[in-house]
Structure to design on (220 residues):
């Protein structure tokens, strides 16, 4: 059997976060407010190690032009914006004024509000507003699973060669292994999407066991 990634206990996860770049007070406040205000819905927020990873990746890639589909209360966008190159722009698509009102406050507190543009409305309709040519350095998809394939097909042609697409929840709490007869609509969509990415010759993908599963895809 090949070596596998560790299953993290709560204690080991805390150790992992503490020995990377742990959340600063601003991110800790955002995580706490999201949990207190939204309860169980707060599970849609990315994991703290993903936050640090996204800032790291934005710096390594040198992100100047990015897109996020699914902003929620803003942890992922805040993390990306903090690592972007000077003069960069992250365009965020979301349908909720309520959730993104929290995000707006934290972008202001972090001093990155001028780097982030929020567009409210269904991304399936609004992604067509973006220039059609390959210009994006970074894409993050973390929204309704049934439309993942739609977002992917709209955005892959707009990513420059050498750019990166990141997609969250690709392991779907293990439900990607559900038998066909037991799959919900969201689970079936997630399984079909993962197969789509694996077969897409325009990218080189890798699926990582971070958070609820994270696919990174390098644009050829």
């Amino acid at each position: 059997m090949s070596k596998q990634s560790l299953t993290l206990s709560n204690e080991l996860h805390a150790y992992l976060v503490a020995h990377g770049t742990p959340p600063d007070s601003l991110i800790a406040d955002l995580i706490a407010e999201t949990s207190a205000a939204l309860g169980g819905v707060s599970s849609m927020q990315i994991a703290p190690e993903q936050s640090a990873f996204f800032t790291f990746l934005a710096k390594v890639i040198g992100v100047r032009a990015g897109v996020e589909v699914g902003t929620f209360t803003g942890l992922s966008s805040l993390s990306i914006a903090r690592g972007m190159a000077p003069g960069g722009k992250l365009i965020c698509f979301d349908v909720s004024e309520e959730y993104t009102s929290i995000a707006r406050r934290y972008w202001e507190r972090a001093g990155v509000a001028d780097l982030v543009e929020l567009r409210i409305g269904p991304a399936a309709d609004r992604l067509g507003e973006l220039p059609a040519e390959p210009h994006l350095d970074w894409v993050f998809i973390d929204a309704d699973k049934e439309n993942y394939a739609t977002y992917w097909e709209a955005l892959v042609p707009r990513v420059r060669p050498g750019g990166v697409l990141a997609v969250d929840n690709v392991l779907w709490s293990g439900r990607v292994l559900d038998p066909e007869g037991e799959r919900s609509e969201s689970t079936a969509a997630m399984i079909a999407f993962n197969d789509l990415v694996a077969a897409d010759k325009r990218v080189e993908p890798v699926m990582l066991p971070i958070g609820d599963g994270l696919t990174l895809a390098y644009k050829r």
User: Anything to note?
Assistant: The chain has a mean pLDDT of 97. The radius of gyration is 17 Å. The chain has one domain: 10-219. Helices lie at 10-18, 25-38, 48-61, 75-83, 97-110, 123-126, 148-155, 185-199.
